């Protein structure tokens, strides 16, 4: 049996990237006092179009995209430090996050020239929001079971079906959806296409779903004979599965897969004010060591993207380890928290505990990722 190996390498960030980190920190110090929400490192905790526009003005959305389309033409390592600093500071990034992380990359690879010219500059300015239309009722882990379908109708397509757990659909301008354009045959991955759906078109029904914390971040999106113009097909008809798999590599490896509960650590350190007992020191030390190791792995994936390699396998490893770690972090910190903590600490901890169950589900569950990793290593 052939076995592949993992391409993790120690990466020293270039000086220019380190300088960028300082620039981002200065920007955060200046802008954070204007943001009313409590800092939260969970990337889909809070959304602010205003904040995304501020980032856009700094050139920190679409940073790696070609300058031809208004992108920054910068490295994936630069993008890494910007995203890491924003998540660590707990800023409201969700309005532009999905578009910047993956939808823009899909458009760059598979979009028509017109789609690129029209939409990428709007993403870069923080003006438009995207959502991901993959999961459906009875089709999450087993994505190939998706049944949402598109049938030709005149010059366009009629879409019927339901997408589920769609983060941000209620505020999104566009969805990139995986849709069946042919009925399923022996090859379950064949016959899918991706569509760029304008969600502001009347006729699409977006129903809110409350998460465990009582917040509305995701939705059920229902299409009933929903008409999409012919040009809304993204890339090649029938190539949807392959396109979606390449999109997932962008979705799975970033700092948001490690640091979702990071603010609990920051707030705990604020509470103890440097005065820790042995037990607290041990837990804080272990958590810090994990963060240091995993962010190096995540930076290594950023380098692979920079080198034009496909990091799908390494990204799955980072997400599995990162999500498992960030899910346990709030509980570990709760157990060492001093008595009589501040309201601010309690709110931060509460939010992390209530959202933690979702960390290992969103973007593909741990169990499924482990199968992907085993297959990638030739073990399955
Ligand atoms: C906060 C959040 C945001 C999300 N946002 C989006 C979004 O924007 N767009 C989108 O398309 N989707 C989104 N999702 C959906 C997410 O991708 C799915 O929840 C996930 O893929 C799992 O699918 P499922 O919920 O149908 O669970 P199921 O597939 O039913 O899985 C249930 C359990 O069974 C396990 N399991 C299933 N199959 C196997 C197997 N073969 N071997 C071992 N174990 C297995 C799973 O690991 C899981 O623990 C979001 C989910 C969450 C929690």
TrEMBL record:
<dbReference type="InterPro" id="IPR046373">
    <property type="entry name" value="Acyl-CoA_Oxase/DH_mid-dom_sf"/>
</dbReference>
<dbReference type="Pfam" id="PF02770">
    <property type="entry name" value="Acyl-CoA_dh_M"/>
</dbReference>
<feature type="domain" description="Acyl-CoA dehydrogenase/oxidase C-terminal">
    <location>
        <begin position="238"/>
        <end position="377"/>
    </location>
</feature>
<dbReference type="GO" id="GO:0050660">
    <property type="term" value="F:flavin adenine dinucleotide binding"/>
</dbReference>
<dbReference type="Pfam" id="PF02771">
    <property type="entry name" value="Acyl-CoA_dh_N"/>
</dbReference>
<keyword id="KW-0285">Flavoprotein</keyword>
<dbReference type="GO" id="GO:0005886">
    <property type="term" value="C:plasma membrane"/>
</dbReference>
<dbReference type="GO" id="GO:0003995">
    <property type="term" value="F:acyl-CoA dehydrogenase activity"/>
</dbReference>
<feature type="domain" description="Acyl-CoA dehydrogenase/oxidase N-terminal">
    <location>
        <begin position="15"/>
        <end position="127"/>
    </location>
</feature>
<dbReference type="InterPro" id="IPR052161">
    <property type="entry name" value="Mycobact_Acyl-CoA_DH"/>
</dbReference>
<keyword id="KW-0274">FAD</keyword>
<dbReference type="InterPro" id="IPR037069">
    <property type="entry name" value="AcylCoA_DH/ox_N_sf"/>
</dbReference>
<comment type="similarity">
    <text>Belongs to the acyl-CoA dehydrogenase family.</text>
</comment>
<feature type="domain" description="Acyl-CoA oxidase/dehydrogenase middle">
    <location>
        <begin position="131"/>
        <end position="225"/>
    </location>
</feature>
<dbReference type="InterPro" id="IPR009075">
    <property type="entry name" value="AcylCo_DH/oxidase_C"/>
</dbReference>
<dbReference type="InterPro" id="IPR009100">
    <property type="entry name" value="AcylCoA_DH/oxidase_NM_dom_sf"/>
</dbReference>
<dbReference type="InterPro" id="IPR006089">
    <property type="entry name" value="Acyl-CoA_DH_CS"/>
</dbReference>
<keyword id="KW-0560">Oxidoreductase</keyword>
<dbReference type="Pfam" id="PF00441">
    <property type="entry name" value="Acyl-CoA_dh_1"/>
</dbReference>
<protein>
    <submittedName>
        <fullName>Putative acyl-CoA dehydrogenase</fullName>
    </submittedName>
</protein>
<dbReference type="InterPro" id="IPR013786">
    <property type="entry name" value="AcylCoA_DH/ox_N"/>
</dbReference>
<dbReference type="InterPro" id="IPR006091">
    <property type="entry name" value="Acyl-CoA_Oxase/DH_mid-dom"/>
</dbReference>
């Amino acid at each position: 049996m052939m076995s592949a190996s993992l391409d993790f390498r120690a990466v020293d960030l270039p000086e220019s990237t380190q300088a960028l980190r300082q620039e981002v920190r200065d920007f955060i110090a200046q802008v954070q006092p204007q943001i009313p929400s409590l800092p939260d490192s969970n990337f889909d905790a809070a959304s602010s179009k205003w904040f995304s526009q501020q980032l856009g003005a700094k050139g920190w959305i679409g940073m790696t995209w070609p300058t031809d389309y208004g992108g920054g033409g910068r490295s994936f390592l630069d993008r890494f430090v910007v995203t890491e600093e924003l998540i660590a500071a707990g800023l409201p990034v969700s309005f532009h996050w999905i578009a910047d992380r993956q939808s823009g990359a899909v458009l760059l690879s598979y979009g028509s020239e017109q789609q690129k010219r029209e939409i990428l500059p709007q993403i870069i300015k923080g003006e438009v929001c995207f959502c991901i239309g993959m999961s459906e009722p009875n089709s999450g882990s087993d994505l190939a079971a998706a049944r949402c379908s598109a049938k030709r109708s005149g010059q366009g397509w009629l879409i019927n079906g339901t997408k589920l757990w769609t983060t941000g659909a209620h505020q999104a301008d566009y969805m990139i959806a995986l849709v069946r354009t042919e009925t399923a045959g022996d090859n379950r991955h064949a016959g899918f296409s991706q569509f760029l759906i304008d969600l502001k078109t009347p006729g699409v029904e977006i129903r809110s779903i409350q998460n465990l914390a009582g917040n509305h971040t995701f939705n059920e999106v229902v299409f009933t004979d929903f008409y999409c113009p012919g040009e809304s097909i993204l890339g090649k008809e029938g190539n949807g599965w392959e396109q979606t798999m390449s999109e997932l590599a962008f979705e799975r490896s970033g700092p948001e897969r490690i640091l979702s509960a990071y603010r609990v650590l920051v707030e705990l350190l604020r509470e103890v004010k440097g005065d820790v007992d042995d037990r607290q020191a041990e837990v804080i030390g272990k958590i810090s060591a994990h963060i240091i190791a995993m962010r190096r792995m995540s930076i290594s994936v950023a380098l692979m993207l920079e080198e034009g390699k496909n990091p799908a396998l390494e990204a799955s490893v980072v997400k599995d380890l990162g999500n498992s770690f960030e899910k346990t972090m709030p509980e570990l910190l709760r157990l060492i928290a001093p008595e009589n903590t501040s309201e601010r600490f309690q709110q931060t901890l509460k939010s992390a505990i209530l959202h933690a169950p979702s960390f290992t589900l969103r973007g593909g569950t741990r169990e499924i990722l482990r199968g992907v990793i085993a297959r990638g290593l030739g073990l399955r």
